[in-house]
Design brief:
By secondary structure, the chain is α+β, with helices and mostly antiparallel strands. 58% of the residues lie in helices and 11% in strands. It has three domains: 28-190, Sandwich (Immunoglobulin-like); 193-390; 500-523 and 551-628, no CATH class. Bound molecules: zinc ion. Keywords: Coiled coil, Membrane, Signal, Transmembrane, Transmembrane helix.
Length: 633
């Protein structure tokens, strides 16, 4: 209550002042288009009315009774704050030119006006409306240009009053111009050409760094690509190119060109890029550590600025620059330690600080000209990109030099190595050669010996076969000889005129006689006399025993010699002699030779004669042995 009185007085004074001013601005400000004028900045030649209630439409505002409420615009921002209110502006143009070849354009450079409605007066006093804006699709504009442009349709010596209703997002500075068609077109073409060059170069640097990233696989180039993208994003949002060419039907994307986001991404990319840049020259854990800390702190401030306690923009920028300076200066110190002074890198950083300030504060009034103020950041970004590119080139050159030096050292080491290897190889070859010769000699010797051995072996085999053949032959001969001998002896005994002594050599005793008799008797086969069985075993004195009935048969049974009472060999001799036609011995002579009694000899001689008679024996044809088996009983 104490302060209520002075406050009221202050209010009263203010009211008087304001009212006075309003009274003074009763007549509208007029823009006179004199001869030779082709372009004129009109913002401070207009009047405005702030509609905080938002209830008035064009008919209300254009009514003669309303005109008193307009005030003269004395600042390009028109009025600060009241962002929710509609800002009405009045423009009265008086065309004093008489050329019919000129037409006039109203041009607004603030392409980021949220909503702008332009009202053209019709001859009948009504108004035609044209609405466009940053929040509306691009195609709604009458003239497809990044700025808001309107053809005034103002004939020579005509005077018209236009109304413009504006809704803002922020305290923006308005840049309104009136231009002739010629000026408008040449200005637009120049602007588009320069912007085209600007984006063209940035995209070339971007593509080049992308290529470097894919071919060298180094994140440094990827971070730089991100930085370029952030700057391109920033520029697209700033000049309206993005809205016109990239997302014309989705105006909500315009809101993503928010300075907070862009600035955050520019700083993020810069921190990562500069850390990697320093690391490529010299490894520094300190720089890595502080880079990540700076990113965390910046992120915290960024989130705070968006959702919590919004700092005043100058404070925010100062903090940001301080955050950036810590890793940046640490990086510079690390580089200085290894004698690397990259001026392009330092200058690029300088440009970056300027860009950050610009990105946040929309315009910085360095120059009088708002166009220069607005576009000043473009050459700065351009320079920054070029300087960072130079830094990258220098770094590539540096790495290349390091590579060349390392390569040279490697080549030297390789050469030395090669020489050593060569020496060792030579020695080794000599040794191998000597050893090979030795082995070859040994092998040749071995081969020769082998051949000798084989030859000897063959000879031995041959000899062996000859010996075995000889043996076989000998054996055969031996056998033949033996057989022959026996045959000869027997033949001799049987055929020839032997005396008793010779005969005794062939049949020396009883046994040999029995054997002969046995062989002669069972020459064909054996049949038992008793049972007729044909299997036998040999018994004593060349007898045979029947395997069935056990009958033992002497070889003399059923022969001429059966039951002979004198030695059988003498009987054999007697039979032999009886078969000799050249010898005719009497019983007496026989008794003398055989030392037997005469009667014995005579009896046996008779027996032989009987046997001869029985079988009708022919001395010429048959041997004496055929008589031996004659059975006389
Ligand atoms: Zn028998």
């Amino acid at each position: 209550m104490i302060y209520s009185k002075p406050n009221l007085i202050l209010l009263l004074i203010l009211c008087c002042f304001t009212t006075g001013k309003t009274v003074a601005q009763m007549t509208p400000t007029v823009v006179n288009l004199d001869e030779d004028v082709s372009s004129i900045s009109v913002i401070q030649m207009m009047d405005f009315y702030l509609d905080t209630t938002s209830v008035y439409d064009i008919d209300d505002v254009a009514a003669p009774s309303f005109q008193d409420r307009f005030q003269k615009i004395s600042d390009p921002h028109v009025i600060y704050d009241y962002l929710d209110a509609a800002l009405w502006m009045r423009l009265t143009v008086n065309n004093l030119q008489d050329s019919h070849t000129k037409s006039w354009y109203f041009e607004s450079w603030g392409f980021d006006i949220k909503n702008i409605s332009f009202y053209f007066p019709n001859p009948d006093g009504s108004f035609a409306e044209s609405t466009a804006g940053f929040d509306l699709p691009f195609g709604k504009r009458d003239i497809h240009h990044k700025n808001f442009n309107y053809l005034l349709n103002l004939l020579p010596s005509e005077k018209k009053t236009y109304y413009i209703k504006v809704n803002r997002n922020y305290n923006q500075e308005f840049v309104f111009h009136l231009r002739t068609n010629e000026k408008f077109i040449s200005h637009s073409l120049n602007e588009y050409l320069l912007l085209g060059i600007y984006y063209g170069v940035l995209i070339l640097i971007l593509i080049f760094n992308l290529y470097l990233f894919f071919s060298l696989k180094d994140r440094l180039y990827l971070y730089f690509v991100c930085l370029i993208l952030a700057c391109i994003w920033f520029s697209l949002g700033r000049d309206g190119f993005g809205f016109q060419y990239i997302w014309p039907n989705t105006p909500w994307i315009n809101r993503l060109t928010n300075e907070n986001f862009i600035e955050f991404f520019i700083i993020l990319a810069t921190l990562l890029f500069s850390n990697r840049f320093v690391q490529k020259y010299t490894k520094s854990d300190k720089v890595i550590k502080f880079t990540y800390w700076a990113i965390l702190v910046k992120m915290a401030f960024f989130i705070n600025q968006l959702y919590f306690f919004e700092l005043y923009y100058i404070t925010y920028i100062s903090i940001t620059i301080l955050i950036l300076l810590v890793p940046f200066s640490l990086g510079l110190r690390s580089l200085a330690k290894v004698n690397i002074y990259s001026w392009s890198y330092i200058m690029a950083y300088g440009c970056l600080f300027l860009v950050i300030m610009y990105s946040y504060s929309k315009t910085i009034d360095i120059f009088d000209n708002p166009v220069l103020n607005w576009y000043f950041v473009y050459p700065v970004i351009f320079l920054e990109m070029v300087l960072f590119s130079f830094s990258i080139f220098r770094q590539i050159k540096f790495l290349q030099n390091e590579y060349i030096v390392a390569n040279r050292e490697r080549a030297l080491a390789l050469e030395k190595n090669n020489q050593l290897t060569l020496e060792m190889n030579t020695k080794l070859k000599e040794k191998v050669k000597a050893r090979t010769e030795e082995i070859e000699a040994m092998a040749a010797d071995l081969a020769r010996k082998n051949v000798e051995l084989q030859t000897t072996n063959l000879k031995l085999q041959e000899l062996n076969s000859q010996v075995s053949q000889m043996n076989k032959y000998l054996e055969e001969n031996n056998h033949k000889l033996q057989v022959n001998m026996k045959q000869v002896n027997q033949d001799m005994a049987l055929m020839k005129g032997l005396d008793f002594e010779d005969f005794k050599n062939v049949f020396p005793d009883k046994d040999s006689c029995l054997k002969f008799l046995s062989e002669l008797k069972w020459k064909e086969r054996y049949i038992c006399k008793k049972c007729g069985f044909n299997k036998f075993t040999n018994g004593p004195n060349h007898s045979k025993r029947c395997k069935s009935c056990n009958y033992l048969e002497s070889p003399t049974v059923d022969t001429l010699f059966h039951k002979v009472k004198f030695p059988i060999e003498k009987a054999f001799y007697m039979l032999y002699l009886s078969n000799r036609k050249d010898i005719e011995l009497t019983a007496t002579e026989l008794s003398e030779i055989l030392e037997l009694r005469r009667e014995t000899c005579w009896t046996f001689k008779n027996k032989i004669a009987l046997a001869m008679e029985k079988v009708d024996h022919n001395i010429e044809l048959n041997g004496w042995e055929s008589l031996a088996l004659v059975h006389l009983e």
